[in-house]
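Reminder to self: tokens first, then the designed residues, so the page reads top to bottom the way the pipeline ran.
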């Protein structure tokens, strides 16, 4: 007769509980990430129904990403103080309400406003979920793999967006891309109430309202100036005023943060090469994503006159590579560190952009399919190492803050990608869209090449032995323990989740 298995049962139950909490957190990340990309495929339909100009289409995307970027840090601190599960539930409900209202929006202005409300809810989810994960997975090896899964879900959700959006828009109209979020969010609320334990920081950080305001002014005014510049004139009083406020906030933000005992973003974090590299890499990668999706949607539907489903199907190579590479990247990061995925990501994105600089109105299918596959490969590899590199250069107590900064950088990057690349290309279109857009888009694709090159260089520079040693010194100066996740090019592979 075998020995009773009771002694191992509690451990098995604890493991199942941890994995269930991870799944719930990833579900919230999935719907927020999906909403980043699913809307792009619906832009031509929204433009037709709501009579939206090109700048209006940019605002539909950037209203969401800007609010996310502006509030992620704030709600991370609020959750530490008032309870992570509580804020997480409120965020899910707010996201569901915003999604429902978006589906009912009667005009462009209302849609932009409801997208902002959606983002308020989304900003309560990502950093709070990361804090829940880091407090649930206390073993460094388990935490590394959990964060790898978390980063992989970002790529998977974004990969599914264009394809799922195409079927929804074609079958039920553009409001359906928002309605689909409502039942998913409500299921996540029920699971959170049942399975996610409440937790708070032992000593929550103080709020930094001045720093928060400066961040909102910097991101909001800077992006508004870029998007509205072509229509209003770059030297118009409005654009000059917006640019002036953004520059002033950019100068004032680091000066203020150095004076605050508990700043929104501690400037000392940026002395860690892995952390700084992760931040800049996130901006570059998601700027590439935002620009790629914006240009690709308009090219496939306005230039080649494909319907939403057909346009979504053309992105299958991108989605397929993301689906394969996102979890693969997480496994590589957990076992060997972030260097290899970052190098591969930079090469993939740069190669994709280089191919698309040859784009014409009737480019052969092989050029598009190879370029889309390369982009999916590059972007699928980049998400897991961003989060890993960000938290690896920080003490465990600062892991949630570091992850929130990485998430903020993602949204800032996507906002800038849509604003800068979209503005550069749409302002250069001359003549009919069918003939002018393809050639005008070349400038945007060259920007993508540069972004890929920057990711490659950062991947090599910020994962070296010297960078890892510098990160350890930053941890010591911050008065913390060992980094939350091991980093560097030489490290033992962590054990599997048992």
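Designed residues (498 positions):
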């Amino acid at each position: 007769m075998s020995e009773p298995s009771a002694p191992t049962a509690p451990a098995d139950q604890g493991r199942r509980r941890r994995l269930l909490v991870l799944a719930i957190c990833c579900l919230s990340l999935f719907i927020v990430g999906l909403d980043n990309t699913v809307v792009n495929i619906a832009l031509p339909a929204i433009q037709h129904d709501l009579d939206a100009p090109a700048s209006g289409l940019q605002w539909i995307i950037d209203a969401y990403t800007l609010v996310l970027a502006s509030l992620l840090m704030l709600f991370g601190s609020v959750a530490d103080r008032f309870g992570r599960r509580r804020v997480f539930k409120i965020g899910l409900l707010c996201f569901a309400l915003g999604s429902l209202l978006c589906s009912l929006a009667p005009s462009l202005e209302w849609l932009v406003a409801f997208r902002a409300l959606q983002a308020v809810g989304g900003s309560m989810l990502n950093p709070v979920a990361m804090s829940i994960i880091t407090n649930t997975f206390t073993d460094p090896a388990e935490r590394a793999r959990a964060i790898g899964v978390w980063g992989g879900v970002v790529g998977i959700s974004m990969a599914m967006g264009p394809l799922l959006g195409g079927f929804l828009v074609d079958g039920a109209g553009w409001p359906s891309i928002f309605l689909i979020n409502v039942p998913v969010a409500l299921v996540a609320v029920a699971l959170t109430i049942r399975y996610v334990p409440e937790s708070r920081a032992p000593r929550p950080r103080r709020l930094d309202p001045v720093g928060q305001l400066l961040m909102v002014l910097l991101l909001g005014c800077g992006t508004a100036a870029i998007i509205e510049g072509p229509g209003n004139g770059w030297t118009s009083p409005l654009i000059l005023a917006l640019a002036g406020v953004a520059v002033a906030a950019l100068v004032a933000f680091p000066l203020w943060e150095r004076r605050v005992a508990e700043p929104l973003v501690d400037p000392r974090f940026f002395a860690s090469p892995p952390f700084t590299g992760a931040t800049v890499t996130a901006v570059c990668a998601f700027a590439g994503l935002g620009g790629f999706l914006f240009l690709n949607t308009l090219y496939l539907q306005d230039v080649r006159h494909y319907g939403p489903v057909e346009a979504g199907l053309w992105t299958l190579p991108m989605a397929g590579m993301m689906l394969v590479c996102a979890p693969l990247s997480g496994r590589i990061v957990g076992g060997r560190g972030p260097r290899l995925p970052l190098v591969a990501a930079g090469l993939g994105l740069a190669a994709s952009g280089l191919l698309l600089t040859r784009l014409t109105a009737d480019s052969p299918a092989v050029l598009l399919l190879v370029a889309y596959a390369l982009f999916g490969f590059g972007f699928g590899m980049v998400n897991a190492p961003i989060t890993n590199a960000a938290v690896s250069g920080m003490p465990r107590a600062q892991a949630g803050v570091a992850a929130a900064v990485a998430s903020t950088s993602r949204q800032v990057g996507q906002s800038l990608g849509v604003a800068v690349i979209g503005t550069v290309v749409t302002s250069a279109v001359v003549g009919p869209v069918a003939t002018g857009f393809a050639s005008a888009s070349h400038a945007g694709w060259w920007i993508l090449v540069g972004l890929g090159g920057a990711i490659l260089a950062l991947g090599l520079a910020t994962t070296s032995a010297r960078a890892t040693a510098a990160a350890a010194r930053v941890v010591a100066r911050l008065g913390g323990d060992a980094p939350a996740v091991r980093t560097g090019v030489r490290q033992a592979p962590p054990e599997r989740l048992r």
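The longest helix spans residues 140-172.
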